[in-house]
Amino acid sequence: MDTLEKAIKFLMGSQRADGSWGNGDPFVCARVMLALKDDAPEGMLLKGLKYLEGRQETDGHFMPVGGMYSDATSTAYALIVLNKFDYGKASLPVSRGIVWLVESQNKDGSWGKNKEKKAYTTTFCLRALHAFYLSGINRFARGLEFSLGYLRGLDFSREPVSHVYAPILNLYRMSYLDEGLRDKFFEFALDAAEPALEGGSVADVAYLLGTLKALGEADVSAALEEWLAAAQHDDGSFGKDLASPGDPNWTALVALAIKGML
Question: Are the C-beta atoms of 191 and 228 separated by less than 8 Å?
């Protein structure tokens, strides 16, 4: 059984009775369901979707559990994954979520309250709108202008991998990643790979692998994937780093990175 197969087996065996995974955070559950989309039994996925729908508040946003993900990021990612499960724009979870996203945009075109993660959060929100064919609205254009300007002026070398991979990957998924930012990310990734490996950061290695793989890079990706195989726990899970216990969130992250589905 290879790395991916063992990870999928762990995820399928770790769903909770209420349909959730991990701590029940909607971002985490959405990530796991996307990783399992082509492998898990339909009943397991339907149970997960039911749980995810139940995490949506009446105002349309998906309430995070814990402090890792923001309201905007959780809502945007839940919508992105619901789209993968063929939820239409007219479905209640999606329509309510889109209204909440549109109404929560900041005056500068960004989303989110954390100034250091604005490109991270904003590009997830843009990707959610894009998934439901809303890239023609003015709020999308403002968010895209903010994101591109912010990233062009950002010193990637001073940022954690988690703040860099998502904006680059999200722009690429929407076909808005220009050559300059692509080259800027490649330079960053080559410099960031060694510290991530030496520091035992499973999350950072997976972020880099998933993004490089999406962008078509092969050599560094192969080395990162080989390292992740050695970092896997005996039960098929992954922790955030080598010293951490296995967790569905990070296991799903690695699975998606290997699949090229981040």
Answer: no
Take residue 210 and report the two structure tokens written for it.
């998933």
Q: Which residues are registered as beta bridge partners of 62?
A: 56
CA distance 13 to 125: 31
User: Which residues does residue 56 pair with via DSSP β-bridges, in sequence order?
Assistant: 62
Closest by CA position to 143, among listed 161, 124, 168, 115: 124
Nearest to 241 by CA among 205, 195, 187, 216: 205
Q: Which two tokens stand for residue 142?
A: 């403002």
Residue pair 168/213 in contact (Cβ under 8 Å)? The answer is no
Please list the pLDDT of the chain residue by residue as tens digits (262 residues). Answer: 799 999 999 999 999 999 999 999 999 999 999 999 999 999 999 999 999 999 999 999 999 998 778 899 999 999 999 999 999 999 999 999 999 999 999 999 999 988 778 899 999 999 999 999 999 999 999 999 999 999 999 999 999 999 999 999 999 999 999 999 999 999 999 999 999 999 999 999 999 999 999 999 999 999 999 999 999 999 999 999 999 999 999 999 999 999 999 9
Angle of helix 202-214 relative to helix 179-198, nearest 10 degrees, comes to 150
Place of tokens 């060694």: 194
* Conformational region of residue 94, where left means phi above 0, alpha means psi within -120 to 50, and beta covers everything else: alpha
Q: pTM of this prediction?
A: 0.96
Burial of 244 (0-12, 13-18, 19+ CB in 10 A): middle
Q: How many helices (H) and strands (E) does the chain have?
A: 12, 0
Quote the CA–CA distance of 64 and 77 in Å, as a whole number. 11
Structure tokens at 48: 């997960």
